[in-house]
Fold this protein.
Amino acid sequence: MSRFGQVARGWWFDVLIVVLASAAVLEVAIRREHSDAPQTTLWFCIPAAAVVALVLLARRRYPFGAPAAFWLLAAATSFVDGRLIPYPAGLYLAGMLAAFLLGNLRDPVLARVGLAVVIGSMATIILNQPGHSPGQVVFIPLLFGIAWLAGFALNARAEQADAAEARAAQAERERETAARIAVAEERARIARELHDIVAHAVSVMVLQVGAVRHKLSEDLADESDALRGVEGAGRTALAEMRRLLAAMRDDGDDLELGPQPGLDSVGSLVAEVARAGLPVALHVEGEAAPLPRAIELSAYRIVQEALTNALKHAHAHRADVTLRYGPDDLRIEVRDDGSGGGATSNGPGYGLVGVRERVKIYGGTMTAGAAPEGGFVLDATLPLRGDGR
């Protein structure tokens, strides 16, 4: 049945044309005694009526040529017998379809040419019809012009729908591209921050190895040489990391000379946001314990992003930051009473993408959205196991 439905939807117009052509031929053949019937022989009338109507079957290959040929053939036939084209109702309805098809053309120039063909051909047919009145010469072509106008209006609506669909598809592609760019930028930022953390740790290690080496006595020459090798390898690693870090930074990025912030800096961040006009309450639950530096930095960035969003874009009047220390994870909840969290400081609507990327790196979870009681809630969990703790 579904196969039959597909065929019916694809060929119903062709079936309609065949039915109208058959009806026109039967009417010409059966009603020969009517006073308005064509006067020429059936050997001409029947093939002429069939050809005029069936030419519309070529509309798929010739969307302009087929309906235009209908009208031109109809006008030419009227010079042989002026009664043939106006007489059968099937040709009348087929003419309506041909006018509609010409109006429905995607090319507006061809559509307007088609209107001229419809009006001119119909006027010629009426003029060639015996006993026509002046009103028929005006109003009958106008009626077919209305059919053309219906096709033209439907095509304009279809073009608007296609344009809207194209704009929606383009907007979706732009959103996907922007999201990918936001993820790439956030990954680069995270990599730079981790390089800073690792470089600081390696620097401390190199300094400590150097201090130990200088305190060794002269009879421990082998140990001193081994430590000198470790110190040299550390300095080489630092140089390579600084070179890579410099290549990763954009030209407009300022070199961060200060230490990377951590959870001990959240209090200062909260105070800074409060001074900017958004009161923030900080809550700490559980026993605070030293965490890996990278986890602390990511937790700070998550809080920073959420508060920036609440301050600049959510029109919030109050926010709450909750840090919950668990045995295996750190949970961060930032809640405000604003209108939503679409845009953030990292770009037009993609700051949450960066937060999600940070959480994803550590295998955590994140939810962000409107709270049932109103406002916006960002909830992120960072696991602590397997992080080198």
Observations:
- The beta strands are 280-285, 319-325, 329-336, 365-370, 376-383.
- Residues 187 and 361 are 9 Å apart (CA to CA).
